[in-house]
Amino acid sequence: MQASLPALPAVTAPERGLPVLPELADRLAAAAAHSAPQPLGGGPELRAAACGYWSRRGLPTEPDQVVAAPGAPPLLLALLAAAGGDVLLTRPCAAWYLPLARIAGRPAFHVPVPAECGGVPDPFALLETVRRIRDEGGRPRLLVLSAADDPTGTVAPPEILHEVCEAAVAERMTVISDETWRDTRHHSGGTVFLGPAEMWPEHVVVLTDLAGALTPTAWPAAVARFPAAGRGPVLRTRVTSALAAVRAELAPPIAAAAAYALAEPGPVRARTAAAARLYGTLGAAARERLATAGVLSRPPQTGPYLYADLGELRTALAARAITDSVELEAHLSAALGRPVPGGHRFGDAPDDLRVRLSTPPLLGATDAERQRALDAPDPLALPGVRDALTEFGSVFSELADS
């Protein structure tokens, strides 16, 4: 058994998201003159806000369990460096997981996801992978999962998540739960979100990237919650030391905005709810157009992404000299005029004809257009959104008709 192959270079920087919430901009501007650096791992106000955020979600948290950093990638890199051993990832998984494992010098292995959802490994495949790693002399120590998933946009059912975490804990592994998109679930009556830390509090580190879900995508801020017992305190100390080595502290204006967002006052709650509704509306409309063209996709349940499988169009794609996800990425990026990363960037084999599709570009290129969609009772009735969806569907229909 061999570790994952090197990841290709990242497609782009984080894409443009929704307009900046005015109240967040005010907080950032008010702190712009602050010259004193933030304490490493986050100042008292930010860590207290993070404690409140998790406590409202059924995870009582003390400030000494919290570490903040300028974005989720630095936090995950520090975690991988601190924990040691081999890393297990899902297939597919977020595009930035595997490159960080390689930078940290940790062998990484992909485990396939179940049919029901992405973001978590199939429990039986997880146990088999762990056994094979150990038979070859490896030390599986970390499982990185995402119950509210990028890239698939799915939410893992609680029963599957429980099986996965039970298996990981039994194998003496620490779980890193990326919960960045948990607050943008499209329908409150859909799959209940139950985080791994609620099941196995002594074995789970929760990682939340604020950028995109609670703050603008260009404002890097993330927080991690460590267990109060078990390996938690040691891991937190090691992570803080790793962040100190690379001076990964938050800028004061970003920290002030992050603390405001984590406190979830009325304007932040309203924006999060509006974004979730908008993503749900766009995701359902985009999936409908994919289905018309014969493209498969799990129903998106959270966040702004869909993960499309064009395997049913393999013959038609081959007529256009598109035989793998690298060529599919190039074609769709050119046809849609924006990056459309192929499945090979998320751990899938290039022969699998898969891509991740992002819905915010359907709203228009300007903040004014995106704000109109946020405010509209029916964003699909807006001419710009309607035209963008028509173009989106026609690109895939043309591929199917080759």
TrEMBL record:
Residues 38-188 form the Aminotransferase class I/classII large domain. Coiled coil: none annotated. It holds the Pfam family Aminotran_1_2. Keywords: Aminotransferase, Pyridoxal phosphate, Transferase. InterPro entries: Aminotransferase_I/II_large (IPR004839), AspAT/PAT-like (IPR050596), PyrdxlP-dep_Trfase (IPR015424), PyrdxlP-dep_Trfase_major (IPR015421). GO terms for molecular function: transaminase activity. Its cofactor is pyridoxal 5'-phosphate. Belongs to the class-I pyridoxal-phosphate-dependent aminotransferase family. This is Aminotransferase class I/II-fold pyridoxal phosphate-dependent enzyme. It comes from Streptomyces blastmyceticus.
